[in-house]
Structures are given as C-alpha cells and as structure tokens.
Design goal:
The chain is about 40% helix and about 25% strand. By secondary structure, the chain is α+β, with helices and mostly antiparallel strands. The strands form ten sheets. The chain has a four-stranded antiparallel sheet, with no helix packed on it. The chain has a four-stranded antiparallel sheet with strand order 8-9-10-11, covered by helices on one side. The chain has a four-stranded antiparallel sheet with strand order 12-13-14-17, with no helix packed on it. It is globular. About 35% of the residues are buried.
Length: about 775
C-alpha cells in the first residue's frame, strides 16, 4: 500500500510544481481578501424609493389639490408640512399627463426630485402624525397599530420613520406599495454600499444560500473546473515519459492500481485548493453575515466529484493519446457537449414544456375546459386526441411571447378565471393587459365558440371570481367585493347634443358589496369560496377573514384569525364544510375548525417543500393538496385521515380539483388529465393527448441523449437541495401559487457517478491490455 501512496505523493509534487497552481492560489487569496469586508445591516424600512410609488405624478396631484382645502386629511397634512418654497414650486409646475399645457419636462423632473426628497424628510419628523389628519385612515396593519399603541415619544428615530411610512401606505393604499418591515443595507468595511433594499430578515439566509449556489456553479464549478483540468492534465501523460513508466512498472505494482493512484493523486491535489477557497468563503459568510451553515462545506465533495467526472475523461484521453494538450482540448469539447445538452433540456422544459402544464379544470355545463400555466383555456378534441385552444383573449396573445421566456409567471401576468356563468352560458375572465397596468374583463358565449371579447375593465386588483348561492358572479379584488349585475359586453355611448359630444363616465356593471369595514387584500393574498355554505375566505397579512352574504346582499365579516409568524408571510388556503386547511411557506399543513379556528391537526408530509394548491370538494369532505414537488396528498375531513393519494403520476402532478359530483380531476405528465371516483380513487376516464413533433423530439431524442451524458452542470441543484432541503426552487417568495423550478437533486449525482465509473473501468482495461 505504501508504494501506491508514494505514487499519489509524486502526483501532488508534480501539480505543486505548476506555475498555474500558484497563480490560482494567489488569485483565491486576493478574492477572499476582497470579499472579507463585505457584510450587511438590517434596518427598518421607511424610505420612499422610485418604485415604491408606481405613479408619482398622481401622488403629487393629490397633495397639490389639498392646497386650498381646510379639511384635515393625510394629503393636506403633507402639504402643510412642505416648505413654503416647495409649496410654491409644486403649485406652479405643470405635470405631464395631468396638465394639458405641460411642456417643460425638465422643470417637472426638478420639482419631482425635490418632492420625493421632501417626502422622505417628512417621514423622519415626529410631528408628522396627528389625530385629525389621519382619523379616517384604516390602520389594518398589525405593525402600524402596535407602533401607534406605544406612543410617538417612546419610539426610536427609526421606528418613528417606519411608523410614518406605514401611515402613508394606509392613507394611499392604491398609490404606495406595501413594504416589508425591514430593509437590508449592504456594508463594505465601514461604508454603506448602494441604497437599502426592502427585504425580510428571514429571507437573507435563503438569499445567501442561493448566492452561494450560484457562486459554486459558475466561479467554482465552471471556471474552477477549467483551471483544475489545466493543472492536472499533464499528470497522466507524464506517466508515459521515457523512463518513468518502466521505472514504475519495474516495481511489483499493478498497472490499473498505478493508474488509479495517479487519478486519486490529482483529485487529492484539487481537494486542497477547493478546501482553501470554499473554507475561506464559509468563514466569511459566518463572520460577516452570521450564516454558520455547515452544509455549505458540502460543496467541497460536490466540487471534487464534478472535477472527477471531467478528470476521468481527461485521464482516459491521456492514456490513449499521451498528450496534455489533447487531454485539455478533448475535455473542453466534452464539457461543451454536456453544457449544450443541459441547456437545451432545461430551456425546453422551462420555456416550452412547463408553460403548457395543466393547472386547472373548469366544468362548463356537461363538459369541461382545462387551463395551463399561462392561463390559456383548452377543450378536448376527441377526433384529433388533442387539446384545442378556446377563449383566448387578445391580451393573452400579446403577452404569450413574453411569458414563454419567463422562468415562472408572476401574478401580474396570470389571468383570473375562466369562470363559467351557468345563468348566461358564458365564460368570464379578468386578464391583465400587456404590459400589465390593469385587467380587461373578457366574456365568451357558447354560441360564438367562446370567442373572447371585452368592453370594460375588471375591478382593480382582481384576484378571484366565484359563484354565489343563487348563481350570481362575485368578483374579489384588492379593494373590495363586487357582484356582476350589468351587461359586461355593452359599451356606453356618449350623448350627442346638436354638434357637441358630451362624454359620460361609463357605468360599471360591477356592484360593490364589500363589508362596511372593507378587507383590503395586499400581497401576499388569496381568496377561496366554501362551496358547502358559500362563505368566502380571504387571506392577507397573515390574517384569515371569513365573510358571508347578508340578507340585503351586502357581505359582512363573520370572524377573523391571525396566523403565527411574520405579517408578510405567503400562504394558501382551502375551505369546505367546517374545515379550513392552511398551507404554510415552511411546508406545514394546518387543519383548523372553520368556525372557531381551533387547530385540530398539523402535518408536514413533504418536509420543507411548499404546498401550491389546496382545493375542497363541494360536499366539504375531501381536500386535495398539490405540492410544488409534484406530489398529491388527500385529507378526509370525515375520518380525519391524511394520506398520499394512490393515483398515477405522483411526483409530476400539477393540479387536483373536484367536479360538481365530487369526483377528482388530476393533471399530471404536463398535459394528461385523469378522472377518479371517490373514495376508491378508481380511474373513470383519462385524456392523454398524442405527442406532437416537438414533444416527440424532447421525449425520444433529447431526453435519451441527455441521459447518456453526465450532468455535472446540474450538481449545483444537489448543493442547493442540501442547503434548503427543498426539491424545488422559487423565484417568487411571496406567491406560493407561482410555479417553482424542480431541482431533481439525485438524478445528476447517480448518472454522473455511473459515467465516471465507466470511464475509469475503460481506462483500467486499456492500460492492462496495452503493450508498453
């Protein structure tokens, strides 16, 4: 054994003699020295930035219009506290898009910049708040109420600024975006870098993990691998130099063990460099960011494993051609092949395949429609055995090319609906305009083959549509509840009097039916209807509110419940019968009594993997919970049994909804729909479309070819999984309904290990049979 250890030491000495190695070590040291002063500080969020107010000119107009008012209001309070000089400038400036004679944009930009700076100055004043000005403001935020209860005199300067910022958000809910409680200030040494950016403190750890995975993938996994190949490429070919091989083989050693010793020597050398770099990064993350996560050190064996994949190819080439240059060149070609195949597969899945994944089933009379990730509705064509698009709006057609390039489609691009209006035999949908500034309300009749037409805009911030007990359509929006009472396809024509046209404001077909104290729904938020008793469950700001329809047609608040944890936490809910199921962002499922909100059971069946959809059957007995990792679980409220559903497609399920007769629709394998009986889960019917040419290329061409090659480029997903414990990665932490990227952590590991083993066996066989 000692003779093989001596060979490993010789391999290390050969690598240590390389100038490239010392250059790399110096560069690693410089990199660590540059990163060491980097840190962050967590402050309360109070400053108003450009993107915090989507329409600054509108806010300026609201404040300017209060100049002559004597009635106390938030806008009047802002005006009264502005310096006289700025009051004069604001009163005189012509605002583009508002004032017709606005011709000097430079003057507006100057006043706008001053106005924004003055607002941030006012937020720091302890006398900003007074009871008269803010008496009518609804302080729905728990944080705002708590700060107000403590008293201004007891608050620190930062808390005062935060309190005033929350006052502004509550006073102008449609003008100012809701902010998280804390912001992150990047610090380099003793100096602040950039402006603070709003982010929850709990998100810093996850952001550091994602950044660490990105660094390991590109700087360590890509650049580092290329450098490592350059350094170690000569080790195997030099073994065949005149005199070296004969000297080695003159000793009683095995040829294949000689080769493996050289291989292990190269890997051991790389492990030293990787430990120095990754260990240094881990110390910086712990000392400067407080992230003492030992799992980060797992990237050392992962990096070593990625190197071993490429080095096995380089070693086999070195035995055959015995040239370091050929080793490097062909290994780079191999790396490019793996990279191109990996990019093709990931891009196909992300941009095309996943966008066509079915996520909803809508019953339309005696038939049904399905909807995919982009919100495109489709119906089954039995003759062609394909899903055919129907009820596609013009806005969806314009936004589709953009959505195809999105990794995950955000709520701002997703339509609400379609909903089938049985009374009028039509489909209804609220679809964001492109670019998303407001939502158009689309209607499609059966007689017109569901052709989508629009004449009006949907209520601002529409996030759900439901059927009331009598069949009327209820629209849930961020600012309230609305009932569809008029004709949404009718345009109101202006009145013509002689040669004059008198424009009239368009009467809305939506009747507001909100409770007297409206529930403002700010993200993250959602709504769902209890089909058993037609109570509406609303979620926002870690609060669940149950409202019901009163005798006069207006909705009233029945009861509320506060969830534990942060106010801005996302969640998904489902309600049926007397059961409320809450899906938390840490993977927990809480079963609550829908009346008393008493917790009866709590499960975490998929670990930290988040639930995406929770649906209840019309009779309130069954609940389907689809997780982002593609697994479906069922909860039986009658027996309180919770178990994984015995259906096909587990691991690739994208939706599970219930029919009116309490059967289960399950969407899996992207475009397949199955219908099951309950409680037996017996398959009733399956709709599995034929593969088109693009799908056949993916399934029978790209996937098999991709499976033959190792996947070193995807081992960063294994590292990310080891850090978070999640099988998916999210690009939108505030929206649990948005699709997440599958990490598939173990497939690249096993396939790459098998490939490396085959390369090493081939090299051992070749060196045993070759004459030297």
């Amino acid at each position: 054994m000692s003779k093989y250890l001596a060979i490993i030491k010789d391999s290390l000495r050969e690598a240590l003699a390389s100038r490239v190695l010392w250059i790399v070590l110096v560069l690693i040291t410089l990199l660590l020295m540059v990163l060491a002063p980097l840190s962050y500080r967590e402050d309360l969020t109070w400053q108003m930035r450009d993107n915090d107010v989507p329409e600054w000119p509108e806010l300026m107009v609201i404040v300017r219009d209060e100049a002559e008012s004597t009635k106390p209001s938030p806008a009047h309070r802002i005006w009264s506290l502005l310096p006289k000089k700025h009051q004069t400038a604001l009163a005189k400036v012509k605002i583009p898009g508002v004032d017709q004679d606005a011709q000097n944009p430079f003057e507006f930009l100057r006043v706008f910049g001053k106005f924004k700076r003055e607002i941030n100055t006012l937020l720091q004043r302890r006398d900003f708040y007074d009871d008269e000005s803010f008496n009518d403001v609804q302080m729905l935020s728990n944080e705002l109420r708590e700060l107000r209860g403590e008293g201004i005199d007891e608050l620190s300067d930062q808390e005062v600024a935060r309190f005033n910022r929350l006052l502004m958000e509550a006073s102008f809910p449609e003008r100012i975006r809701i902010s998280p409680p804390t912001s992150i200030q990047v610090v380099y040494g003793w100096s602040n870098v950039l402006e603070p950016f709003p982010q929850r403190g709990s998100s810093v750890r996850e952001s550091v993990q994602l950044t660490a995975a990105w660094v390991m993938k590109w700087f360590v996994g890509a650049i580092g691998i290329v450098i490592a190949i350059l350094v170690t490429a000569p080790i195997i070919p030099q073994m065949f130099d005149p005199g070296s091989l004969h000297l080695l083989l003159s000793k009683p050693i095995s040829r294949w063990l000689l080769f493996l010793s050289k291989f292990v020597g190269g890997c051991a050398f790389i492990m030293i460099g990787a430990t120095y770099l990754i260990g240094g990064l881990w110390l910086i993350l712990g000392a400067r960011f407080g992230v003492w996560d030992a799992n980060i050190l797992l990237s050392i064996p992962i990096y070593l494993f990625v190197f071993a994949i490429y080095y096995s190819v380089s070693s086999l080439i070195g035995i055959v051609w015995r040239s370091p240059i050929v080793c490097v060149a062909l290994t780079v070609v191999f790396w490019m092949t793996c990279f191109i195949l990996g990019v093709m597969k990931i891009e196909f899945e992300t941009r095309i395949w996943n966008k066509t994944r079915l996520v909803n089933v809508i019953e339309v009379g005696d038939t049904f429609l399905v909807a995919n990730e982009m919100g495109i509705s489709q119906e089954w064509d039995a003759d062609s055995r394909q899903w055919q698009q129907v009820f596609v709006s013009q806005d969806q057609k314009e936004a589709r090319p953009v959505m195809m390039f999105m990794t995950s489609i955000p709520r701002e691009f997703r339509p609400v609906g379609p909903l089938y209006d049985e009374k009028e035999d039509r489909l209804l949908s609220a679809t964001p305009m492109f670019p998303p500034t407001k939502m158009n309300f689309y209607v499609g009749d059966r007689t017109s083959d569901w052709e989508a037409e629009t004449a009006i805009t949907a209520p601002s911030g529409t996030l759900g549509m439901f059927h009331e007990e009598n069949g009327d359509v209820l629209v849930v929006a961020s600012m309230g509840l609305y009932r569809l009472v008029g004709d949404p396809t009718k345009k109101q024509e202006p009145i013509k009097l002689w040669n004059f046209t008198i424009p009239l404001s368009k009467s809305s077909p939506f009747q507001k039916v909100s409770p007297e104290e409206p529930v403002l729904l700010t993200q993250p938020s959602m709504a769902t209807m209890n089909q058993s008793n037609h109570e509406l469950a609303l979620y926002t700001r870690a609060s669940i509110t149950i409202v019901r329809k009163g005798d006069d047609g207006q909705y009233v608040v029945e009861r509320t419940h506060e969830l534990d944890g942060e106010e801005r936490q996302p969640a998904v809910i489902g309600v049926g019968g007397n059961t409320l199921v809450v899906g938390r962002d840490d993977g927990r499922l809480q079963i609550l009594d829908a009346t008393s909100f008493e917790l009866s059971h709590e499960f975490q069946p998929e670990g930290p993997n988040q639930p995406r959809f929770i649906n209840a059957s019309p009779d309130g007995r069954w609940f389907s919970i689809v997780f982002h990792n593609g697994n479906l679980w069922m909860y039986d409220a009658e027996s309180t049994e919770f178990k994984k559903a015995r259906v096909t497609g587990q691991g690739d399920i994208s939706s599970a909804t219930f029919s009116r007769d309490n059967q289960l629709f399950v969407c899996d394998h992207t475009v397949r729909l199955s219908r099951y009986e309950l409680p037996s889960l017996k398959l009733v019917r399956r709709y599995s479309p034929k593969l088109d040419w693009l799908a056949r290329f993916y399934r029978y061409g790209l996937v098999p070819l991709y499976s033959l090659f190792p996947k070193p480029g995807e081992l960063d997903k294994t590292f990310q999984y080891l850090l978070s414990g999640k099988e998916t990665a999210s690009n939108n932490r505030s929206d649990m309904a948005a699709s997440q990227q599958s990490l598939d952590p173990w497939t690249p590991l096993w396939s790459s290990a098998l490939f490396t083993l085959v390369m090493l066996i081939a090299a051992c066989v070749y060196i045993e049979w070759q004459e030297f």
